[in-house]
Amino acid sequence: MQKLRDLQGLGPKSEQMLTDAGIESVEMLRELGAIAAFIRVRQQGPVKPSLNLLYALVGALEGEHWLTIAKQQKAQLIMQLEGFDELEKLFASEGETLNL
Length: 100
Known about the structure:
DNA polymerase, domain 1; 0% strand; TfoX_C; DNA transformation protein TfoX; TfoX-like
């Protein structure tokens, strides 16, 4: 079985952040997708990740280097995160939690 750290651009630190957030397999990462996985790490992990983790997650799933992702998809990924943040605020204003 392939380990998270075996994916391109992910290492032991990234793997630990993912497992701390309950993402324990490559299959689970693929099912969640990079954005949801990053948000889960941000919400549940003891360490707040930088955007570099998001770029690395996208790169790992797409087979690209994280710097390529950062250059080509940065604006799109940030907009997706901002959209999630707005949705999370909406849920919070109604006393609910948005779970991934």
